[in-house]
Amino acid sequence: QVQLEESGGGRVQPGGSLRLSCAASGSVSGNTIYPTKWYREGPGQERELVARLLGDDATVYADSVKGRFTISRDSQKNIIYLQMNNLKPDDTAVYYCNSRTINGNFWGKGTLVVVSS
Q1: Under a CB-based contact definition with an 8 Å cutoff, are residues 73 and 20 in contact?
Q2: From 62-66, 102-106, 109-113, the region with the lowest mean pLDDT
Q3: What is d(CA 19, CA 37) in angstroms, rounded to the nearest whole number?
Q4: Which among 45, 79, 26, 37 has a CA at the least distance from the CA of 62?
Q5: Distance (Å, rounded) from C-alpha 95 to C-alpha 85?
Q6: Confidence of residue 19 (pLDDT cuts 50, 70, 90)
Q7: Alpha-carbon gap, residue 62 to 51, rounded angstroms
Q8: Sign of CA dihedral 6, 8, 10, 14
Q9: Rounded (10°) CA dihedral 66, 46, 43, 85
Q10: Residue-wise pLDDT tens digits, 48-77
Q11: CB-based contacts of 38: which residues, under 8 Å, 6+ apart?
């Protein structure tokens, strides 16, 4: 059984920082599942891709977070991170990690980030 578990959310003032983590466990047919993407879903908004890791460890970011967010991974622990700096109220959302492979499309339950003064 595959589990993706996000952590690190919370309430922060504008301009503050948070680091989210996503730990993956389990496998499908003996294949380890590696999370590679962070999404978010703001109040009344559709889920959107925030950041992703590509196969060569290149990174892709939504325009709204470029220069402020950094995605990274610890391959040994199978954890991905999202370092979020200079947070803005528009960053308020539930943040989800995701892994989509031929073995399935896996999501965590999300972690809430609230940016407010």
Answers
A1: no
A2: 102-106
A3: 15
A4: 37
A5: 15
A6: very high
A7: 6
A8: negative
A9: -10
A10: 999 999 988 899 999 999 999 999 999 999
A11: 20, 22, 49, 50, 51, 52, 71, 80, 82, 95, 96, 97, 98
